[in-house]
Amino acid sequence: MIYDKNGDLPFRISRSKIDLFLECPRCFWLDRKKGISRPGMPAFSLNSAVDALLKKEFDLLRESGQPHELMKKYKIEAVPFKHKELDIWRNNFKGKEFYHKETNFLIFGAVDDIWINKKGELHIVDYKSTSTENEISLEDEYKQMFKKQVEVYQWIFLKSGFSVSPIAYFVYANAGKNRPKFDGRLEFELEIISHKGDTSWVEPTIFAMKECLDSDIIPEAGDNCEFCRYRSLASNIY
C-alpha cells in the first residue's frame, strides 16, 4: 500500500517499517511513498522453526497456567498470558494494532509471546536464535533494534489499555557447536535476558514518519545505510 497524504483510510505502519525509518528515512520514504523497496533477503527458516517450537512449548503451559522451568530458573514470577486474540497478535500479517488518530496511522506488530505477572502486568517476550560461544548480550550495536522492537510492542499494548511492565524478556536459544558429531540434530541451550524498555521515543518517531511521508522532497539517507551508499556509488559509474 502506497502512502497518500490525502487518503481517508488509516495507513498501516508495521513495527519493521519503524525500524526502517530509524535506520534510513530515505529508504523508508522510497518504500512507503514510492513503492520502491529494498532488495529482499532470504528467510531464516531455522530461526522460524525455533520460534514455532518455543511457542508450542509455552502454549502447553499457557493452558495449565503454569510457569516454564526457565522462568523459575531466572526467578521470573509470571506465567504465559492467555488471551483469545493471542494467535492474531502473533500473526505476522495481522499482529496487535493501535490506531494513532493524530497521524491516521495504524501501528501494528506481531509479538512472539506475552507473559503476565502477579500484579496483572504484561511482559513482552521475544524469541531469538543464535549460535555462539560468547556471552549473549543486548549491547552489540545491531541488537539495539531488538530493544526498539519490544519497546514498540510495549507502546502498542499500553496505548490499547493494557497494564504493561517496562521489563521485556528475550528468550535466547543458543545452538551448541561442541558435540563430537552432528547426528542430524542441534542441541540448544535456553537463557533469558531482560530489558527495561523506554517507550518515550515511539510517538515522536511516529510524528516524524508522518512528516517524512507528507513531504515531496526525498529525505537524507541514514548515516550507515549500505543500500543508499550502493545506489550512490553505482549511479556514479553510469
Q: How many beta strands in the DSSP annotation?
A: 8
| Gap from first CA to last CA | 31 Å
**Average predicted confidence as pLDDT:** 92
Spatially, the strands of the biggest sheet line up as: 2-5-6-7-8
- Measured by DSSP, the beta-strand proportion falls in 15-25%
Q: Structural class, from secondary structure content? A: alpha/beta
Tally of contiguous helical segments: 8
Topology:
Blueprint: E1 11-14, H1 15-23, H2 25-34, H3 45-64, H4 69-73, E2 78-80, H5 86-89, E3 96-100, E4 105-109, E5 113-117, E6 122-130, H6 144-159, E7 167-175, E8 188-196, H7 202-214, H8 226-237
Parallel strand pairs: 1-4, 6-7
Antiparallel strand pairs: 2-5, 3-4, 5-6, 7-8
Helix pairs in contact: 1-2
Task: Describe it.
With 238 residues, this protein is α/β, with parallel strands linked by helices. It has a domain at 45-208. The protein has eight helices and eight strands. The protein has helices spanning 15-23, 25-34, 45-64, 69-73, 86-89, 144-159, 202-214, 226-237; strands at 11-14, 78-80, 96-100, 105-109, 113-117, 122-130, 167-175, 188-196. The strands form two sheets. Strands 2-5-6-7-8 form a five-stranded mixed sheet. The protein has a three-stranded mixed sheet with strand order 1-4-3. Helix 6 (144-159) links the parallel strand 6 and strand 7. Helix 1 crosses helix 2 (25-34). The chain starts with 10 loop residues before the first strand and ends with a helix.
